[in-house]
Amino acid sequence: MTSLHLLHLSRNAPSSPYLLSSFFSPFPLKTLNLKSKHTSPGPALCVLQWNRKPELAGPTPRVAVITSGKGGVGKTTTTANIGLSLARLGFSVIAVDADVGLRNLDLLLGLENRVNYTAIDVLNGDCRLDQALVRDKRWSNFQLLCISKPRSKLPLGFGGKALIWIVDSLKSGPSTPDFILIDCPAGIDAGFITAITPANEAILVTTPDITALRDADRVTGLLECDGIKDIKMIVNRVRTDLIRGEDMMSVLDVQEMLGLALLGVIPEDAEVIRSTNRGYPLVLNKPPTLAGLAFEQAAWRLVEQDSMKAVMIEEAPKKRGFFSFFGG
Amino acid sequence: MASTSVTSGLLRLRALSPNHRIGGRVVKIRGKLRFGCPNLKWGGGRSKLRFCVRAVEVSEGSGGKREKNAEEVERGVADGGGEIARFMGAISALPAVRLMKKSVSNNFAIGAFFAILIVVVAVREIAGKKQRYEQHGSVADLVKRGQIRSDRRSISGPLKYDDPFNNPLVKVSKSNSTVEMCGKVYRLAPVTLTEEEQSVHQKRRSRAYQWKRPTVFLKEGDPVPPDVDPDTIRWIPANHPFATTATEIDEDLAQNNVYQKEGIPFRIKAEHEALQRKLEALQNEQKLNKIAIDPNNVREFERPFKSFSKPQEQVDRNLSSNQPNGVAKAPESERVLDLAENSSAADE
C-alpha cells in the first residue's frame, strides 16, 4: 500500500523527487533528469516495497575498489555488506575478491563451498568467465568472483591487466553489472596494485585510530597518484560512548585529518562477528542492527554519489531527577 | 505480652513488645494420621486430630530467664468441615515435621530442612540442564549434518524495509537536529569539511607521496631491461607467497580466454584434442597389431555373443540373405549373434 501510494505521488508530483534527492544528493538536477527517465510505469514497480529507490549516478559499470592500507579494519566486511545492500536495492553487483593470498569474502558471504573456478582458471582457459562467477542464491543479482585459490600464485606480468580484461568482458556481456566492487588486500604490495588497476573510484575503510589513519593517508596518496580522484571514506568500528568520553577520535576529527568525503560511519557491533560466523551478511539480519543500517545508508549514498552531511553524536545521558526513583 | 487467638483453625500471634518472643517449642502442631490400609481414617469417621498451640512469653527484664505459659489452647477438630485439620495432619505426618518435633532445636531443623531442599533443587536443575545439553536430536544436529541451512534459521525470508533513512528503526526529527536509531537518540553534527580543505589535503598528499604504478615486475636478481623507468619496476622475491613473475600462459591467449563468452574453454578443448589424438594413435597401433594376427583365427576362439568385431556389413548381408526365407530359417548361432548386436545397440 505504501509503495503504491508513493509511486502515485512521484508520478503526479514532479517536485517530490527533487525534494528527496536534494536532501541526499549533491546533484539534484542530474538526479531529476535520471528520475524522469525511469518514470515509465510498469507492472513490476507496483510490487516494490521501497518508498523510493536511489538514483544511480555515473556511467555503469561503476568500478569501485575497497581499500584501507591497514589490515583488519573491515574491508571485506564492508565489501560483503555494501555489495548485498546494493543487490537488495535492485542493482546487479559483482564482488571481486582480489585478496590473492588471503581471500575471505567467500567465507563472509557463506559461498565458500560454491567456489570451483577462479579468475586464474579463466586466464588459463580451464573455464569461461561466466562459469567462474558464483551467483548468490539469496539475491540473484549478486555474484562473486575470486581471483585465485589460496595456494595458487598470481602471475604479476599481467595481474592488473587481467582485471581490466575481466571488467571489459563483463561490460560487453549480455547483462552489464551496475557495480563491480573489488575487495583489495591489505598493504601496498603487488596485490594492491593489481586490485586498484581497473577502478574508477575508491572506498577507503578506516578506523578512528592513529595507526589506521596513517596507512589510510598513505593509500589515499597512492590512489591519487594513480589517477583515482573519487575517494570516499567509511569510518568503521566507531564507538560513540568512547568518543563522548574523549577516549576515541571523533568522526569529524578523522575527516579533518584525511580530508575525504564521508560515505558512512559504521558503529561497533557485536553482530558483525556473529554474521561472519554464520556467513550471513549483517544487512540481511532481521531485525536490522545498527551497523547493518549504517551499511545500508552507505550503499545508498554510493549509488547516488552522495556523501554524509551530518554525523551522529551520542548525547550525555540526562541527569536523573530526585523523583526519577519513583518513575518521575 | 503476646496475645493468641484461635478462631476456627485460624491462628493469630501478635507480639506486643520486641522484648517478647515466642520460643521454638511453644507452637505445637500435633495430629494423627494413619496411612496404613486397615487404619486409614482420612476423610471418614471422626478425626482425632488435636491442635495444640502453646504461646510462651519470655521476658529477660530481670536478668533471669523466665518462661511463662501464657496460654495453652487445645482444640480438637472433630466434626465434618475439617479440611484444615486434614491439611495440618498431612503436614504433621511429614518426616521433616516429625524431625522438627523431636529435635532439640527446631530452628536448626527448619534451617537444615530448607538448606537441604535448596541443595536438592539446585542439584536436580543442574543435572536436568546437563541432560538437556547432552540430549541429541535437536535442530542443531540437522545443521551439523548439513540437512538444513543454519543461515536460514530464525530468518523466515529476505528482509525488505522501506528506506534506510526513514523506517521504524531510523527516524530523523523534523528539525534535522536529532536522529533516533534502534531506539537511541543521537544528535546530528554537521560535517565541516569544505572543498577547499579537500584540495589542500590533496596537494599535501601529492607532495608527500610520489608514486608511479609499477608496470614491470621482475624477480630479484633479474637484469633491468633497457628503456624501462626504474620507478615503475616492482621487485618480487622468488619465494613470494602468492605473486610470481613466471607466466605459464601467453598474454594474448589469456586475454582471449577472458573474452570468451561461449563454447568450450581453451584448455579443456586443447586437452580433449590431445587425448583424442592419443586415442587415435593408440587405435592405429591396435589396427596394425590386428593386421599381424589373422582375425578369422581370433574369432574362432571368441564366444559367439562377444564377437562384436564382426563387421556390420557382413551381418546385414546375412540378414538380407535370410530375410526371404524368414527369420526362423536362420541358424541358431546367427540368431544369438543378432540378439547380442541388438542389445548392444540398445545400450548405446
UniProtKB/TrEMBL annotation, chain A:
NCBIfam families associated with the record: minD_bact
A Gene Ontology biological process term: negative regulation of cell division
Record's protein name: CobQ/CobB/MinD/ParA nucleotide binding domain-containing protein
Keywords: ATP-binding, Nucleotide-binding
Domain CobQ/CobB/MinD/ParA nucleotide binding as annotated: residue spans: 65-281
InterPro entries: CobQ/CobB/MinD/ParA_Nub-bd_dom, MinD, P-loop_NTPase, ParA/MinD_ATPase
CC terms in the record's Gene Ontology section: cytoplasmic side of plasma membrane; cytosol
SUPFAM superfamilies, sorted: P-loop containing nucleoside triphosphate hydrolases (SSF52540)
Membrane-spanning ranges: none
An example molecular function term from Gene Ontology annotations: ATP hydrolysis activity
Family named by the database record: Belongs to the ParA family. MinD subfamily.
Superkingdom in the source lineage: Eukaryota
UniProtKB/TrEMBL annotation, chain B:
Protein keywords: Membrane, Transmembrane, Transmembrane helix
Example GO biological process: chloroplast fission
Transmembrane segments: 108-127
Lyase as UniProt keyword: no
Ranges of Polar residues composition bias in the record: 309-325
Region (Disordered): 306-348
Keyword Flavoprotein: no
Any single Gene Ontology cellular-component annotation: chloroplast inner membrane
Protein name in the entry: Protein MULTIPLE CHLOROPLAST DIVISION SITE 1
Organism, as annotated: Aristolochia fimbriata
